[in-house]
Structure formats: C-alpha cells, structure tokens
Write a structure and sequence with these properties.
Layout: H1 2-13, H2 17-30, H3 37-49, H4 62-76, H5 83-110, H6 114-127, H7 134-147, H8 151-164, H9 169-178
Helix pairs in contact: 1-2, 2-3, 3-4, 3-5, 4-5, 5-6, 6-7, 7-8, 7-9
Amino acid sequence: TESELRIANIHFLREAWSEAENAYKLFKEFHPKHKESDFVTFRVAMSIYKQLPDSIDRDLSLAKDAILYFEQVFVNYPQSDYAGSAKDHKNKCLLKLARKEYYIGNFYMIREVYDSALGRFEDILQKYPDIGIDARTLYGAAISAYHLKKKGKAKTYYKKLVNSFPKTKWARRVKSELKGKI
C-alpha cells in the first residue's frame, strides 16, 4: 500500500500530472479508508489542476473535474490540513471558468452579437457570483440588453453596477454610455 502511494507521489514530484492523477485515483479506489485519504484526494485534484492551460482561450473542461475533487477534500475532510488550500484552488478554477465565459461574451459584444453576449454575461452572473468579475460582467450585460432594446434588463444591470461597484471604471463607463437612455 505504501509503495503504491509513493509511486503516485513520485509521478507528482516529477510533474507527470496525468500519471499522478491516475495513480492517486487508483490508490483512492483500492484504499478508500486509508488514513491519508484527504491527502490523496487533494493530490488527485492538484494533478488535474496542474493540467489546466494557463490561457483561458483553451479547453478548460478539466477545471470541472478538479473542482469536484477539491470539494471532496473540504466537504469530506473539513478538519484536513488541505481543506483551506482545496477551497482556494476551487475558487481559482471557478475564476478561470468565469473569465473564459466573459472572454466569449466580450467577443460577441465587440462583434455586436448582443443576444449571445447577454446570454454569456447572464450565465456568469448566475453561475459565478462574487468571483471577482461582477462589475465588468454587469457592464457587458447592461450594454448588451440596451442594444437588444430590453430596457428593463438594461436598467436592472445598470442600477446593480452603479450601486454595487460605484467607484469602478465599469460604473463610470456605463454611466457615460447609458445615462438618460434607459
């Protein structure tokens, strides 16, 4: 048992992320009640996390898998030494996913495909609240809704942006672009 765990650790230390992921998953499957299950689960998550691309314009589907394992750590082992780090890394994955959605929404907005842009911005506001990109997302949602002649939505997003993030450049921009129009 200990040699199986050491093999997984060696893969991890050599930065062979995929091999480490598989070795830790096998260990977890064969030894579910092991005393270091919290560590093994965290290492599965980190092995997946380390495989994520640095750029948001690449495939981030692995982020969802990493999130599941990070959640297992702090839900199943709340007293674990790894619980805090698991929460932090989960939030990093969520931020990466939110930034990708924003990138796509902004792409549509620049090209004046406002219905697709608004859909992306609304998804971000629903799926990733308080992740750190709310102000710019509200700006995109307000502008997109305005161009779609959905003045009620535009006004809602405008007010939320101006009231929640009054000192941001996004609030200043939305005021200069939409004040008196909605």
